[in-house]
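Working notes for the structural subgroup meeting. M.R. asked for a predicted model of this chain before we commit to crystallization trials. I am recording the input and output together here so anyone reviewing the notebook later can reproduce the run.

Input as submitted:
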Amino acid sequence: MRLVRLFVGALFLVILGCQTTPAPIEDYSLARAAIDAARSVQAARHSPGYWHQAEEAYRKGRIYYDDRDYSKAKEQFVRARISAEKAENSARLIRQRTGDVL
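Returned structure, recorded in token form:
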């Protein structure tokens, strides 16, 4: 009886340990949309610092995603989205100040 309980407990831990983080599809999509929006206002030209951070985080996120390391991928996609949004906002502000047409 004791051996059965031990076996059931071990089996439970194995099954519980096999659960993984779900794929961050929404974060992936939001990061991609933010990068596209930043690209549309030429953020690479007007805000290269934030743009580079966004591209690098997105690239790392895709690598982690392809490797199925979803927790690290989600972290990188969130960083990419935030940096891309900052790049877009900064580029829009700079273009407005210089009189560049949006």
